[in-house]
Amino acid sequence: MNMSLPLESKSSAQSSHNLTSGWLLSITSTLLVLTPSSSQAVPAFARQTGQNCIACHAGGQFPELTPYGRLFKLTGYTIGERTLPLSVMASGGLTSVSKIAAVNQSLVNNTSTGLDLPLKNKQTSLDIASLFIAGKVTDNIGLFSQITHDRYSEVDDQGLNNQGHTTGDNFDLRWADQWLLSGREFIYGVSLNNNPSVSDPWNTSWAWMQYVPSSSGPGANAYLDANTPYASSGLPGDLYSGLSTYLFWNKSYYGEIGFYRSASRLLHFMNFGNDPNASILQGNSNRYWRFAYNHEWGSNNLMVGTSGMAAHPYDSANGVSSSDALSYQGVKNVGVDTQYQYLLDPHTFTVQAVVQKQNFTPSVWDATLNGNTPSTTRVSRVKFSYVHAARNGVSFANFNQNGGFASATQGNTLEVFHLPVQNIRIGLQMTFYSKLANIDSPSNANSARLYFWGAY
Q1: Which of the ends of the chain has fewer CB neighbours closer than 10 A, N or C?
Q2: Peptide bond before residue 63 is cis, with ω within 30 degrees of 0
Q3: Alpha carbons 57 and 253: distance in angstroms, whole number
Q4: Can you tell me the distance from the alpha carbon of 333 to that of 357, in angstroms, rounded to the nearest whole number?
Q5: CATH code linked to domain 35-455
Q6: Which pLDDT score is estimated for 319?
């Protein structure tokens, strides 16, 4: 498949280049204020491009992107024709923890807090349901947004996570364009988003590492692969508001710089449904960066990259006002990651690896009141996956987070899955622990998850 797009003469279409601020605000307010967001495969994009899911997602395995999928994202979700921009997604299943009573007792012994079990062990549940509004707005502007309902995210009167809650999720509004100069191709754009790294074109950064969505409720689902250590922004809250700009040169060199702040005032919709006090950043200069080298040859493609975050989030735990500059902590993350793909029908093979160092500096009040000192956490993750004929697949992941008894987590996840049609996935995911925070015998928490994941 030809991964290049026709490069139109933009000089003769200056109005497309220079949209008035009033028109842009109108588009934003009418399409976005009503629709907060997140992210997996979106059938609306398939309808828009006329392609099936495997054109953008490696072997149909969401959210891993193919070169064509990356091109679609980089060009602002604008390839194809405008269609109905709505999609829905749901996931659920049955989770079995090896010795859940022993796990609960260990937690009570070591933390004074045990598991609540609205997500009962060995009981089927529908965990997540989402509505997507996504697609082409103009030739240069596109949108990805999602509203998610988590069936077990809220605590009821008995203290159990047995109530549902609807929130915004990842959000990405883009303006993008292309430029050809002396045989060199440049794709460039601007992303208004609410989660550092959601804009990553490889979907290997923090916002995209949870492959099979599940409820955030801390019952039996607490020991699924979705909750094992992933690289992250290190920010304590939910969603923020940020503006980043990016450049992709000759399909080889990628660079992105972004700045984030609290999602407040006109941008409060970007943290819709979440606790605003948990997602406060100091000022407007909280920085995110992403740089990568990409190489494609034949049926192969390879990326080697780095990403990072430097921010000052509000420390709400000490009850000090966010107007006090001494109540802000420091977060600085630097990570390196790589991805190799082999894509030649009927075979899809992917290897991904990430290593991240997270530095935390407590707020002055936290250091004064609680005696906390700066700390460093290292997280690594490696994943191998193979899909045959976009129908049957297997994956293996190793994860590791350093630390003492209260934080160290280490283990492996093995998964087999089947896609009977392109937008339905059925799988069995098994997670095995050799270290687990506050658990005396980590293997007691070994978990198996039989899941269903569908989108339309």
Answers
A1: N
A2: yes
A3: 21
A4: 6
A5: 2.40.160
A6: 86
Rounded CA separation 92/73 (Å): 28
Domain-wise residue ranges, the chain? 35-455
pLDDT, tens digit, 9 for 90 and up, residues 156-189 = 888 888 899 999 999 999 999 999 888 889 999 9
pLDDT digits 0-9 by tens, 365-383: 999 999 999 999 999 999 9
Q: Which are the contacts of 11, defined by CB distance < 8 A and separation ≥ 6?
A: none
Query: What does the alpha-carbon distance between residue 452 and residue 424 come to, in Å, rounded to a whole number?
Result: 8
- Which residues pair with residue 341 across a beta bridge? 301, 350
Name residue 393's amino acid. G
pLDDT at 412: 98
Distance, CA of 324 to chain centre: 31
Q: What is 4-41 written as a DSSP string?
A: -------TT-HHHHS--HHHHHHHHHHHTTT-----S-
Tens of pLDDT along 397-420?
999 999 999 999 999 999 999 999
Tokens of 54: 């495997």
Q: What is the DSSP string of 261-322?
A: E---GGGGGGGTTS-GGGS-BSSS-EEEEEEEEEEEETTEEEEEEEEEEEE-BB-GGG---T
**CA 174 from centroid of its chain's CA atoms:** 17
Neighbours of 418 (CB within 10 A): 12
Q: Which amino acid appears at position 414 of this protein?
A: L
| Among 206, 194, 281, 272, CA closest to 236 | 281
User: CA angle 79-82-84, nearest 5°?
Assistant: 125
Largest CA distance in the chain: 71
Which position has the token pair 């062990």? 121
Between strands 330-344 and 300-311, the pairing is antiparallel
Which letter, b or e, does each residue of 146-171 get, where b requires 16 or more Cβ atoms within 10 Å of its Cβ?
bbbbbbbbebeeeebbbebbebbbbb
| Cα–Cα distance, 48 to 72 (Å, whole number) | 11
Contact indicator for 275, 289 with CB cutoff of 8 Å: no
SS3 333: strand
Contact 83, 47 (CB under 8 A): yes
Instruction: Classify residue 92 by its DSSP letter.
Output: E
Q: Is the peptide bond before 374 cis (omega within 30 degrees of 0)?
A: no
- In sequence order, the β-bridge partners of residue 136 are 142
What integer best gives the mean pLDDT of the chain? 88
